[in-house]
User: Fold this.
Amino acid sequence: MTTATQPVLRAQPLGPQWPTLDPFLFCAHHDDSYPAGDGRMGVQSVEFEGRQMGSDFSRKDGWSMYHGDSVPGFPGHPHRGFETVTLVRKGLIDHSDSLGAAARFGRGDVQWLTAGKGVVHSEMFPLLNTDQPNPLELFQIWLNLPAASKMVAPHFTMFWDERIPRLVHTDAGGKCTTVTVVAGALEGAAAALPPPPESWAAKDASDLAIWTLLLEPGATWTLPAARGKGTRRMLYFFGGEQLQIGNALADRHAALEIVAGQDWQLANTGSTPVECLLLQGQPLNEPVARYGPFVMNTEQEIMQALQDYRSTQFGGWPWPEQDPVHGNTPRRFARYPGQSEDEVPPSGNGN
Assistant:
């Protein structure tokens, strides 16, 4: 086995949408400094000047409305053929979907939604604070489904922040690295929560991992080698001043494709905390046909998806509005399809 001397195979700048590797399709980092709300969980209309309402991705004043009219976010829209994994670092999201599921989640929570044969959902960003700003930060990751699973039944699940495993490592100098394990096995951390049953992440052969890393200034930690031969790994360095990876120094934020088959020592050589997102997995190596919110294997399957959505609306929309929000209290909860009682985080306080 040849040992690599250079850890970084490729470096790409970070834009609004981050470059990904198969089996991942898309990664977006939303970081919006929303102002105080208007008392109805929306933005005061005076803030709309200079925005293309209905499709505002301007980041004017540090935030966007996206497709929202008064509450920012993404009103009802369809998906087929892949999964969305949404990691919320700050703020809250109100989820509603065509399965009848609903949730308010955030502050470290993760939502994992298998679109499968078709689901419609909305993702709205309620601005609950009326006397202070409403910051929102999240990652949304699209994970492809294998051809054999493209048309499985949709599946909705929540990973509450209180349940997500974390590895806290203190190095010889007393500096701390925290690894949050959304998916994948990491020695020293508790077993990851089970992904949806039809996900590529649920297959042992996938070697799939979704981790976030936080290194204190001066901290070192060894990123362990991936298990599978052929696994590919992308490390997104998005917070902090500089990150040493083996003998390579990253001094600007970037998507770094890393040699996955061996260990690499990471070191925060700057004066502020370093933050990274890691996505890794065995490629599916299948053809990808994409059209907006649909990801299939052939153009014919895309045409069928469009036809099915026009004729069935993927089961219809059970909500009175296209952009539902779930009240003006910060209580986090999830209501699963066919259920009437809410699940709340295991602390029980819902805050």
The CA atoms of residues 143 and 210 lie 11 Å apart.
